[in-house]
Write a structure and sequence with these properties.
The protein is mainly α. Helices cover 76% and strands 0% of the residues.
Length: 407
């Protein structure tokens, strides 16, 4: 599958994308509105960042307890229920007079529920598309996410200039409900991909199996840590430039769209597999210039260029799928999205704390420097693992494990 035309002729691919677009638009508009509401109420960069990215940190708990459901529950039902639960939670966040501690309680619940979403969507995309169409389809999925973020943050910024944050939260709740409706009407009811009931034991067994391969461990860390540190920088846009935060998020989404388009459609496979480290460095290096406290225009340029580096996730996801048994594809992708979301939440906490102690610009620079350091370290470890694997008599540590099953 080499063209977008053949991709969109695939049954269910279009409604799959439309339901996700509505969900993603709700996330962007609702997240910006909630961060603005909390910042206006508290004046705290830390609390503002946590309110926007806290659900992602909470996904770590959900991933530890619920992730086996990604392969053991019917995907359409899970995605519909996920959208409806987010609609209800966002409506609660819009209630007048809701104390800050209650806001973070709802944010925690959202993260727990969301922990299933990434694995279910990733596994379902694997079923909808053929194997040779996965990277192209995933690039379209990521580009849609970038476009929706760009439109959502731009729209959210405009709406916040006209409406109250609580009204914007209610609009986000309506979009979540629309996502549930499109999912239910547009997707086929499929059985679970794996037998057995979701359970804590099944989740932990499969996670342990996935983590047991050194090559997969390095791939997961490459997907999670550099990305999470830079999202920590992203979480400070509201406190760095309160009146232009929506624009910065929109330009970041534009850069992400351009990167996914280039890597997913234009870069040949032989070259793409070598781009993981350069793209992760691109993701971080432009943020080093925030030490100079650039104005909004130069900040938007830096954010756009850096965000093209998010396309590293396409390269690393393709590598992850080549290292994973087929009946664990959903949980493998779920572990990726859960870990990535958790590291993004941790990045937001760390960046918010640094900004509280120093300044948003200083914190963004420090987070970028940490991301560069981690990327270079992982690249060195990857080269070492390749040399070890090439030694005669060395047993490969991947693709040889039996599939985990619930007895």
């Amino acid at each position: 599958m080499r063209s977008y035309r053949s991709l969109f002729r695939t049954a269910e691919f279009t409604p799959f994308l439309l339901s996700f677009a509505a969900f993603a638009a709700a996330q962007t508009i609702g997240g910006l509105a909630l961060a603005t509401l909390v910042f206006r109420a508290t004046g705290s960069p830390f609390l503002s960042a946590v309110s926007m990215f806290g659900p992602q940190l909470a996904q770590l708990l959900g991933g530890a307890f619920l992730l086996s459901g990604a392969d053991r529950l019917p995907p359409r039902a899970v995605l519909s229920a996920l959208s409806l639960s987010f609609a209800a939670a966002t409506t609660v966040l819009a209630l007048p007079g809701l104390p800050v501690w209650a806001v973070f309680g709802v944010v925690l619940l959202q993260g727990l529920v969301a922990s299933l979403g990434g694995g279910v969507r990733g596994g379902l995309l694997n079923e909808i598309l053929t194997k040779d169409g996965y990277v192209l389809g995933r690039s379209v999925f990521n580009m849609l996410w970038g476009l929706t973020q760009m439109a959502g943050f731009a729209t959210g910024g405009a709406l916040l200039a006209l409406l109250s944050p609580r009204t914007c939260l209610l609009l986000a709740a309506a979009l979540y409900a629309l996502a549930a409706l499109v999912t239910h009407l547009g997707l086929t009811a499929r059985p679970p991909r794996s037998v057995g009931r979701p359970s804590l034991a099944a989740t932990w067994r499969a996670n342990a199996l996935l983590w047991s391969s050194r090559h997969r461990r390095l791939t997961y860390l490459g997907l999670w840590v550099p990305n999470g540190l830079i999202v920590g920088s992203d979480s400070l846009y509201v406190s760095y430039a309160p009146e232009a935060a929506g624009m910065l998020y929109a330009f970041g989404a534009l850069g992400m769209f351009a990167g996914d388009l280039a890597v997913g459609r234009l870069v040949p496979h032989a070259l793409r597999r070598r781009l993981a480290t350069p793209l992760r460095l691109l993701l971080a290096v432009p943020y080093l210039f925030f030490v100079l406290r650039p104005g909004v225009t130069l900040s938007a340029v830096a954010v756009t260029v850096a965000s093209a580096g998010f396309a590293a996730s396409l390269v690393l996801q393709e590598r992850l799928m080549s290292l994973t048994p087929e009946d664990l594809a959903g949980q493998a992708l779920g572990l990726h999205t859960t870990g990535m979301a958790a590291l993004q939440g941790i990045g937001a906490l760390l960046a918010g704390a640094l900004a509280q102690l120093t300044s948003p610009a200083t914190a963004m620079t420090l987070m970028a420097a940490a991301s560069v350091t981690v990327t270079l370290t992982l690249a060195a470890l990857g080269r070492y693992e390749k040399r070890q694997s090439a030694v005669p008599g060395t047993r490969p540590s991947f693709l040889s494990e039996p599939a985990a099953r619930d007895k």
